[in-house]
Amino acid sequence: MADFADIYGQEQIREHMQYALRTDKVSHAYIIAGESGAGKKLLSGIFAKALLCEKRSEKEGMIEACNECPSCIKALSGSHPDIITVTHEKENSIGVDDIRSKLCDDVVIKPYESTRKIYILPEAEKMTAQAQNALLKTLEEPPSYIVIIILTNNVNALLPTILSRCIILPTKPVKDDVIKSFLMQKYRVVDYKAELSAAFARGNIGKALELSSNERFEKLKNETIDLISRVQNLNTAEIMDRIHVLLEPAEEDAKSSKKGVDMGQYEDFMDILYFLFRDFLVFKSTQSDSHLIFTDKVSYISSVTRKCSYEGINCILEAMDTAKKRISSNVNMDLALELMFLSIKENL
Ligand SMILES: [Zn+2]
Q1: From the CA of 67, how far away is ligand 1's center (Å)?
Q2: 146 and 272 co-located in one domain
Q3: Which of 72, 258, 275, 325 has the lowest tally of Cβ within 10 angstroms?
């Protein structure tokens, strides 16, 4: 498990936690709010470990757990009796029984070996109204030794009366260059791949990490660019056949997708095209590869940009916008993509 020094981005949340540790002004309830992949679990784990550490100290300006005391060793192995993750029986909802048995009824028992008892409640947006009301009762009169850390991707799903009793810590999108150095330093991802994953992740460090090691995404990227490079030699039916293969759901989730199209794959496909055409424009105006996203495709990008015009690329980007709008308003996807590819063929 990581320490505060290992957190990339999320400076405000880190500062808040550091202040709490430094001054020992710890609230009874926190909400860490942010999308999946933003690092909510990591942040709550680091905070819990540091709160219970018996010998925490300042390292390079940061209060950190020692990672050596008996408490830290248990926290690191996930077996600390005073760090309780509130799990739930049903996959899609957290019921009142889950909250009562794992939280409300448990908080009356004093900590086993620490000065505090910490409850981590992931996916709190799944709580039923009854479950939220049960949680509220505990939040209204919390025993002095408890800290509840609520994790959610949708703070609006929680009762205002819960929100008003918690300190809300929203995660923020992380800057691309911070994500890039995270991938390169922590996971030894190569330069161009780190750059590309950061660009696609839109500030979400977990998504970037996922993309950087995702072979399906790498394949989609290479085959999408290959399709564009051959587009003048293919007829519409051939183009659409290749797109259908690209957008097929992976075998394991074939059942859950609609009409044989994986919508996540479709969004990545459109993003890849968008970033590719953006690269054409960037290369055309700078004649340099230093600001490109697809730095592994420089020779292809430079060969295309010699032939096509700024106006042509702008027409393609407009056609892409139109296609996206049509698809989101439920126009037949094939038809919308066919029209978009006509524009690509005409203007490239
Ligand atoms: Zn420790």
Answers
A1: 5
A2: no
A3: 258
* Cα 65 to averaged position of ligand 1 atoms, centre (Å): 5
Q: How far is the CA of 1 from the centre of ligand 1 (A)?
A: 13
Q: Which domain holds residue 151?
A: 4-170
User: What spacing in Å lies between the alpha carbon of 54 and ligand 1's midpoint?
Assistant: 5
Per-residue pLDDT tens over the stretch 82-102: 999 999 989 899 999 999 999
DSSP secondary structure of 248-262 = PPPGGGTTTSBTTB-
**Distance (Å) from CA 114 to ligand 1 centroid:** 11
- Three-state SS for 83? strand
Query: Average pLDDT per run of 10 along the chain, which is 348 residues long?
Result: 90 97 96 95 97 94 96 96 94 95 96 96 97 97 97 97 97 95 92 89 93 90 95 95 92 59 90 94 91 89 92 96 94 95 94
CA of 201 to the centre of ligand 1 (A): 34
Residue with tokens 């929100």: 163
| Residue 163 and residue 219 in one domain | no
Contacts of 327-336 spanning 24+ positions with Cβ under 8 A: 327/266, 333/259, 333/261, 333/266, 334/240
Q: Is the pTM of this model over 0.85?
A: no
Query: How many whole angstroms from 234 Cα to the centroid of ligand 1?
Result: 63
